[in-house]
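Need residues for this backbone.
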């Protein structure tokens, strides 16, 4: 157990270094806004079920969507280690052209343990937001025509979090995630003239704490249970700085200056979820509201709109009495749909996605290898905007320590 814990800690440190130094994790032209594409804190269970999790309790798997769920993991398990990897293919289409790009990396590292019968905790490291794009275009500038403009961005904000769940009374659990958000993102706009170029650069360096809360109540029936959950996050504000530089044709710096300070205020969000649990399955749905009209990006004049996100998912836990190996496997599927938070050129559009996966038991059922596929769609080709289609394959390894119990399915 000590050796696994040491490996986990070293892995988190390496992950932090890799993601901080990487050019990008997720690629999207829409990451030009704010601090980039916001990534939800999830595990392999949530990702395969369309991101659902507010009303989900699982005996053997982590559910970071609602920290109150940590206490639902069954007593024989003393520790859970999870690390996830992914490969992603993105295809972009506008009215004039198409392009594609592939990437990959680490989804998350999670470690769960118990302080006592009524207090469970989870430590994790995951991306918070990501910036990754490069857009070339030509415009008229004064008397010059077809001047080359290049917009590019890179970097990541990461979150190291400690989640706690408290079983305060029978069937009621409360949870809190305390996260430390760190990292940097850089966005640049370059104008190339015949003899010189001008570059404006916006940089965000984050060192910020964030807190979110959750609660779950379980209604038990004869053969089923209904879990109702709620989550709340009051938002977070990041600060950055603006720089401008003037280069000659040899890329030598002629002048440079530091501009105004930047503020990126992200809004509060709240959600409610329900999960119908039986011995072999879970059917769950979440509804999450985010008050984007209270957001503010000081360097960008944007029109925000409040959003509602609907997620639904199904989990088949596997048959413990199955005679074949694949009969023991757990199956997951889900979807989500929401309106994008920005109106761009007066155009609003939805984003949606589908996912599915299988959990294959290994090591006498103590652990599992989870395989997940997801398809996501964001954007539109209306009014010169970009439609992005993303396909992602994820592999998560889950290792469990149990008190002398051999489990044959996940």
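Answer:
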């Amino acid at each position: 157990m000590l050796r696994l814990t040491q490996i986990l800690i070293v892995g988190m440190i390496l992950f932090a270094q890799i993601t901080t130094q990487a050019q990008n994790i997720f690629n999207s032209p829409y990451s030009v806004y704010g601090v980039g594409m916001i990534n939800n804190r999830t595990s392999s269970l949530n990702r395969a079920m369309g991101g659902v999790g507010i009303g989900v309790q699982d005996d053997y798997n982590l559910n970071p969507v609602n920290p109150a769920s940590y206490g639902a993991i069954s007593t024989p398990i003393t520790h859970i280690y999870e690390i996830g990897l992914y490969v992603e293919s993105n295809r972009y289409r506008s009215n004039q052209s198409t392009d594609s790009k592939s990437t990959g990396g680490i989804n998350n590292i999670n470690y769960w343990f118990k302080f006592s019968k009524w207090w469970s905790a989870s430590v994790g490291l995951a991306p918070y937001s990501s910036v990754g794009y490069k857009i070339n275009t030509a415009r008229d500038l004064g008397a010059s025509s077809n001047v080359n403009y290049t917009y590019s961005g890179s970097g990541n904000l990461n979150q190291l979090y400690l989640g706690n769940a408290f079983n305060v009374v029978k069937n009621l659990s409360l949870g809190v995630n305390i996260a430390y958000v760190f990292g940097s993102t850089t966005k640049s706009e370059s104008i190339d003239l015949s003899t010189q170029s001008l570059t404006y650069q916006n940089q965000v360096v984050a060192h910020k704490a964030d807190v979110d809360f959750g609660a779950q109540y379980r209604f038990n029936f004869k053969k089923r249970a209904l879990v109702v959950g709620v989550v709340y996050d009051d938002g977070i504000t990041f600060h950055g700085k603006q720089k401008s530089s003037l280069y000659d044709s040899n890329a030598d710096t002629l002048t440079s200056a530091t501009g105004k300070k930047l503020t990126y205020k992200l809004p509060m969000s709240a959600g409610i979820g329900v999960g119908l649990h039986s011995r072999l399955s879970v059917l769950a749905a979440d509804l999450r509201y985010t008050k984007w009209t209270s957001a503010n990006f000081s360097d960008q004049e944007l029109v925000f709109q409040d959003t509602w996100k609907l997620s639904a998912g199904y989990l088949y836990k596997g048959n413990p009495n199955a005679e074949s190996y694949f009969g023991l496997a757990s199956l997951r599927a889900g979807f989500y749909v929401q309106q994008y938070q920005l109106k761009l050129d007066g155009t609003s559009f939805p984003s949606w996605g589908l996912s599915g996966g299988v959990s294959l038991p290994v090591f006498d059922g103590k652990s599992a290898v989870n395989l997940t596929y997801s398809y996501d769609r964001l954007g539109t080709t209306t009014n010169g905007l970009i439609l992005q289609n993303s396909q992602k394959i994820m592999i998560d390894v889950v290792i469990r320590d149990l008190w002398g119990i051999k489990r044959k399915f996940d």
